[in-house]
Design brief:
Blueprint lengths: L1 H4 L6 E6 L11 H4 L4 E3 L2 H10 L8 E3 H8 L6 H17 L6 H10 L1 H13 L14 H14 L15 H13 L14 E5 L6 H10 L4 E7 L5 H11 L6 E2 L17 H13 L13 E7 H21 L13 E5 L5 H7 L13 H12 E2 L4 E2 L4 H9 L10 H9 L9 H18 L3 H7 L9 H22 L8 H17 L7 H14 L11 H11 L14 E3 L3 H4 L11 E5 L3 H4 L13 H6 L6 H11 L1 H14 L4 E10 L2 E2 L4 H5 L3 E4 L27 H9 L1 H11 L7 H20 L6 H16 L9 H20 L10 H13 L8 H4 L8 H7 L2 H7 L15 H4 L1 H5 L3
C-alpha cells in the first residue's frame, strides 16, 4: 500500500483517473475501494454508488458531512448568531473622521456579507500584522478594522475555530460524517485509516481545514478526473491541485476517446472532442461533420416555462409508476444543468416542495412574525407601515381569529387603496371610519352609488369594515406584546424568543384544525428554540430582524433535502455517471451557455467586500490552504468550461444546449466556443409559459338563462372573451382595483362632470381650471388616497383639461351642449376607460357601435358562447382591463 501513497510520512496523495466509469481499473483502486469516500456533492455520491458495487455498503458520503461532523459548533445557529451580534457591536465601535453615520449605516446594511467575509478571515487565520492594508479598497479596510476589533476584544471567543483534535475525535467525526448519509454503515468493512476526498475543485477554507486536521492521523487521498488528450481543458484541475505542492500521479490506461466509428460514441462525445480540440489549438483535428443546435430562450421566464412542462410530464409518469416510485427528477426525460441556475427562483414558486422542506418562516404563520418585525419601529415604539403587504400577510396568517378563513385578507385587499398612504394602524382605522360613513351615504343616493360601485374599496359592507378594525386593533396589541420593551431588556434575544416559544405552544399547537405536517414543523421549531437558553445575546432590533431566519428554523429531518430541478454545473460530474444505465431517449440539457454566464467574474465567488485582488495584496500567500482557496476561486470560470466538456464527453444518452438571451435588461451572447463552431439557433415554439390550468367547462358559471346581457357585455365579449367571463358573468360589473385604473377612472369622472358644468360657458382657461378644481374637490372624497399626492392630482387635472380643450371644445368659443349621444359616450368611457385604441379603427372603435338587443341575445346565447369558450385576447386593451391582475396574460404579452 505504501508504494501507492508515498509511505507513512506523507499524509497526502493526489491521484487522477482517466475514465469515471472505470476507476476500478486504476492500479490504486484495491487500496481505496474500502475506504470512506467523501465526494464534493450529493450527486457525485449517488453516481459513485450507482456505478461501483463496492460503494453500496455505505462507504460514500459528502465532504460537507465530514466538515459538519468535525466542526459542529462553527456551523451551528448558536455560533452564527453570536458572531452576527458581535459584528454589530464592532461596527458601533468604529470611528470615522467624516461621514461616520453614513458609512456605519452602509456597513450595517451589508452585515450578512460582512459576516461571511469575517468568517473566511478567521477560517484562514489571517495575520493582521502581515497585511498590506494600504493596497486595499476602502470597504476592505473597514473589514480589516472590524477584524482587528474582534480579535482584540472578548468577542474573539465567538470566532475561535477549534484547531486541535485527538485521533479519537477525528475517528468519530469520520464515522459521523458517514452516518449522516445513511444509518446502516457496517464499519467493520470500512478502512478509516485512509479517506478519499473525491472531485473537489472549489475548496472552501473549511474543507481545507478539515483535510489538514484529518491528515494528522490519516492518509488522505485527493482524487479527480483528468484527460491527458485535453490538457488545456483540464489544466484548471492541475493549477488548483499544484497549490498543494505535491506530485500529481496520473496513469492513462483507460482513456475514452470519441470516435464516430465506435458504437459507444455518442453525438455529445463527438461535440466534446471538437470543442476540446478547438481549445487545444487543433480545430481541424478529426473534423468530421458535427452540426450543433442551441436553443435560444428570450428570458428566464420562458426558460422556466420550458422546464416546467418537462417537470409536469415527469409528475404524470411518477403518478403512473405505482410499483417503484422514485423522486420526480428520476422521471424527467430531460435533465437540466445550468451555468447559472437562478431559474430555480421562479420554479420554487410553482414547485416549493421540490426544493426541500419549507422553512418555518415561509409558512403563513412564519410570514406573520416576519411582517410584524418589518413593521415595528423601534425608535417610536409602535407600528410604522412602509408596505401594506406586511399587514396583508398578518391577516392571512390565521394568527388573528376570523369566522371564515381568508375573510380578513379579502376585506383588507378590497379596502387598502382607500388608506394606502397611511403609516400607522391608528391612521388606517381613522380612514376606515370615513369609508364606512361614505358607504352609508352612497346607499341613500343612486347617482352616488352608480359612481362608487366601480371603486373596489366601496365593494364592502359596513359590518366587514368593523370586523377589519377589530382585527387591526388586535394586531397592534400583539405586536406591542412582542416588541414594546425589546430595547430595554437584558439578553433581549432570549426574552423575545421566549415569548415566541410560548405563543407557538399555546396559540399554534393548541389549534384543533392544525395540519399534521405543519404541527410537526412547529414542534421541531420549538426544539430549535430550546437553544435560545444557551445564547446570552443582546443586539439591536435590526440584528434581530436579520437573524430571525436562524432562530425560527425547524430542526432538519432526514429525507427532506432539496432536489433542484435545474442543477448547477458542479452537479454534472456525478449525475453524468447515471447516463450509462438510463433510457437512451433521456436528454441531458446544458443550459445558460452564454458568455456572461460561463465567464463568471472573481467578485461573484467571494462575499462582499472580498475579491481576488484582496487576497493578492493582503499578505504573502505562504500557507498552502490560503493558496489553494484563492486559486480555486480564480479558476471557477475555467471549471465551468471543463464541466461542459466533461458532461458532453461522458454522456451516454442524448443532449441539448441552450442559453437565455435577455437577463436583467442585458443581452447575452451565445458562448463563444459554440459560436466559433457555427452553432445554429433554434427557438421555442410560441406556447404559453407557466400558464394557469385551463378552466374546465364544468367549473364555469352557467350563462344567464334569461340572457340579460346588454350593450356593454357585448362590447366586452368582442374585446376579450375571458374578460367577458369575469366581468359580465361572474362579477356582473366593472370594479377598478389597482392604483393606475383608479386614477384613470377619476380622470374620466372629472372630465364628464366638468363637461356638464361647462356647457354653454365661454371657453377661457381660467374658467376651465376653476371648474376642474371645484369638481375635483367634489370627487376627491371618493378617492381618499389622492389627497396627499400633489403630483398625481396635477396629472389628473392636466389630462382632463387637455381632453376638454382638444377633443370637446376644439375651435369653439363656448363649450357645447351635452347631447343624449354624448351622455352615452361618457358612460361608455366610465365603463371602458378608452373607446379607441390602436391604429386600426375597424378593430376597436367599431366594437362600441350600438347593437340591436336581438343580435346581443343571439350572439351571447349559452350554446354559442360555450362552443367558442373563453380564450384570452392579448393586446392594447389589456392595459385598461379591470381584471388584468387576475388574468396575468398581459404580462406575458409585454414580455416581462
Amino acid at each position: 500500500m505504501e508504494q501507492f501513497f508515498g509511505g507513512i510520512d506523507m499524509p497526502f496523495s493526489i491521484y487522477t483517473y482517466s475514465n469515471p466509469y472505470e476507476i476500478n481499473k486504476e492500479l490504486y483502486w484495491d487500496f481505496i475501494k474500502n475506504c470512506p469516500h467523501f465526494c464534493v456533492s450529493q450527486t457525485m455520491a449517488n453516481g459513485m454508488i450507482e456505478t461501483y458495487e463496492e460503494m453500496t455498503a455505505g462507504k460514500v458520503s459528502t465532504v460537507g458531512n465530514l466538515v459538519n461532523s468535525l466542526f459542529p459548533y462553527w456551523e451551528s445557529t448558536e455560533c452564527k448568531i453570536k458572531q452576527y451580534t458581535d459584528i454589530d457591536k464592532a461596527i458601533g465601535r468604529l470611528e470615522f473622521p467624516e461621514n461616520g453615520d453614513k458609512v456605519r449605516q452602509s456597513l450595517r446594511f451589508n452585515r450578512k456579507d460582512l459576516s461571511n467575509s469575517l468568517r473566511i478571515l478567521f477560517e484562514l487565520d489571517m495575520n493582521i500584522e502581515e497585511m498590506r492594508v494600504d493596497l486595499m479598497s476602502e470597504e476592505q479596510k473597514h473589514l480589516i478594522r472590524l477584524y482587528r476589533i474582534i480579535r482584540e476584544t472578548d468577542m474573539i471567543h465567538d470566532f475561535n475555530l477549534k484547531r486541535h483534535f485527538t485521533r479519537v475525535e477525528v475517528d468519530e467525526a469520520i464515522k459521523q460524517g458517514m452516518i449522516l448519509e445513511r444509518d446502516n454503515v457496517d464499519f467493520s468493512t470500512v478502512d478509516i485509516d485512509t479517506i478519499v476526498i473525491h472531485g473537489v475543485h472549489q475548496f472552501s477554507p473549511m474543507i481545507l481545514q478539515t483535510i489538514e486536521l484529518v491528515a494528522k492521523y490519516k492518509r488522505v487521498v485527493l482524487l479527480f478526473n483528468y484527460q491527458q488528450q485535453y490538457k488545456n481543458v483540464y489544466q484548471t484541475w492541475i493549477d488548483v491541485y499544484s497549490s498543494f505542492d505535491l506530485p500529481i500521479i496520473s496513469q492513462f490506461i483507460n482513456e475514452f476517446k470519441a470516435n464516430p466509428l465506435l458504437s459507444n460514441s455518442y453525438s455529445g462525445n463527438l461535440l466534446a472532442d471538437k470543442l476540446s480540440n478547438l481549445i487545444e489549438g487543433h480545430p481541424e483535428e478529426n473534423d468530421i461533420e458535427c452540426p450543433i443546435e442551441i436553443m435560444e430562450f428570450d428570458n428566464n421566464t420562458e426558460f422556466a416555462g420550458y422546464v416546467a412542462n418537462i417537470f409536469e410530464d415527469a409528475l404524470k409518469r411518477q403518478e403512473q409508476d405505482t410499483e417503484n416510485k422514485r423522486s420526480t427528477l428520476y422521471y424527467m426525460q430531460e435533465q437540466f444543468y445550468a451555468a447559472n441556475n437562478s431559474v430555480n427562483d421562479i420554479l420554487k414558486i410553482y414547485y416549493p416542495g421540490q426544493f426541500g422542506e419549507r422553512h418555518f418562516l415561509t409558512y403563513p404563520i412564519g410570514h406573520f412574525f416576519l411582517s410584524i418585525t418589518n413593521m415595528w419601529n423601534a425608535e417610536e415604539g409602535g407600528i410604522r407601515v412602509e408596505n401594506m403587504n406586511d399587514i396583508a400577510e398578518c391577516l392571512n396568517s390565521g394568527f388573528i381569529r376570523e369566522k371564515t378563513p381568508g375573510s380578513l385578507y379579502s376585506i383588507f385587499n378590497r379596502t387598502k387603496e382607500f388608506f394606502v398612504r397611511a403609516k400607522t394602524i391608528d391612521q388606517i382605522m381613522d380612514l376606515l371610519g370615513k369609508l364606512k360613513k361614505r358607504i352609508a351615504k352612497a346607499e341613500k343616493d343612486e347617482a352616488e352609488k352608480r359612481i362608487v360601485s366601480r371603486l373596489v374599496y366601496f365593494d364592502v359592507t359596513v359590518e366587514e369594515i368593523e370586523t377589519l378594525v377589530i382585527a387591526l386593533m388586535q394586531l397592534d396589541q400583539i405586536t406591542k406584546l412582542f416588541y414594546e420593551d425589546f430595547e430595554n431588556t437584558a439578553n433581549n434575544f432570549k426574552e423575545f424568543y421566549k415569548r415566541i416559544k410560548e405563543f407557538l405552544e399555546t396559540r399554534v399547537l393548541g389549534a384543533e384544525d392544525l395540519e399534521e405536517e405543519f404541527r410537526d414543523v412547529v414542534k421541531r421549531v420549538l426544539v430549535r428554540l430550546e437553544e435560545v437558553d444557551k445564547i446570552d445575546a443582546s443586539g439591536s432590533f435590526d440584528v434581530l430582524k436579520e437573524t430571525m431566519a436562524y432562530y425560527l428554523k425547524q430542526e432538519s429531518k432526514k429525507g427532506l433535502s432539496a432536489n433542484w430541478i435545474v442543477r448547477d454545473f458542479e452537479q454534472i460530474d456525478g449525475d453524468i455517471l447515471k447516463s450509462r444505465k438510463q433510457d437512451k431517449d433521456t436528454i441531458y440539457h446544458f443550459a445558460c451557455l452564454s458568455d456572461n454566464d460561463m465567464n463568471v467574474s472573481g467578485r461573484e465567488r467571494f462575499p462582499w467586500p472580498l475579491d481576488v485582488n484582496f487576497f493578492e495584496v493582503a499578505q504573502e500567500p505562504i500557507d498552502w490552504k490560503y493558496q489553494v482557496y484563492v486559486k480555486s476561486r480564480r479558476e471557477y470560470k475555467n471549471f465551468k468550461r471543463y464541466a461542459l466538456i466533461y458532461g458532453l464527453q461522458f454522456n451516454r444518452v442524448k443532449f441539448k444546449l441552450s442559453y437565455v438571451k435577455n437577463v436583467d435588461d442585458k443581452e447575452n451572447e451565445m458562448y463563444y466556443l459554440l459560436k466559433i463552431r457555427g452553432a445554429k439557433k433554434v427557438y421555442l415554439d410560441n406556447k404559453p409559459v407557466l400558464s394557469l390550468s385551463e378552466v374546465t367547462k364544468n367549473a364555469l358559471p352557467q350563462l344567464d338563462a334569461a340572457n340579460n346581457y346588454g350593450q356593454y357585455d357585448y362590447f366586452r365579449y368582442k374585446i376579450c372573451k375571458y374578460r367577458f367571463l369575469l366581468e359580465s358573468t361572474i362579477e356582473k360589473k366593472v370594479v377598478y382595483r389597482d392604483h393606475f385604473l383608479l386614477l384613470k377612472y377619476l380622470e374620466i369622472l372629472l372630465e364628464n362632470a366638468a363637461r356638464i358644468t361647462l356647457q354653454g360657458q365661454l371657453a377661457t382657461e381660467d374658467v376651465l381650471l376653476d371648474i376642474l378644481n371645484n369638481e375635483f374637490k367634489n370627487l376627491e372624497r371618493k378617492f381618499e388616497f389622492i389627497k396627499d399626492m400633489h403630483t398625481e392630482r396635477m396629472d389628473v387635472v392636466t389630462n382632463a383639461k387637455n381632453y376638454l380643450l382638444n377633443s370637446v371644445l376644439k375651435q369653439r368659443i363656448t363649450f357645447p351642449k351635452v347631447s343624449p349621444s354624448d351622455i352615452i359616450y361618457m358612460k361608455k368611457k366610465e365603463e371602458f376607460i378608452y373607446l379607441q385604441l390602436g391604429e386600426k379603427e375597424e378593430n376597436f372603435f367599431s366594437n362600441f357601435r350600438e347593437v340591436l338587443q336581438a343580435d346581443i341575445v343571439d350572439r351571447l346565447s349559452g350554446d354559442r358562447v360555450d362552443a367558442a369558450g373563453y380564450p384570452k385576447s392579448c393586446g392594447d386593451w389589456c392595459q385598461y382591463c379591470a381584471v388584468r391582475e387576475i388574468c396575468l396574460e398581459p404580462y406575458r404579452y409585454s414580455g416581462n
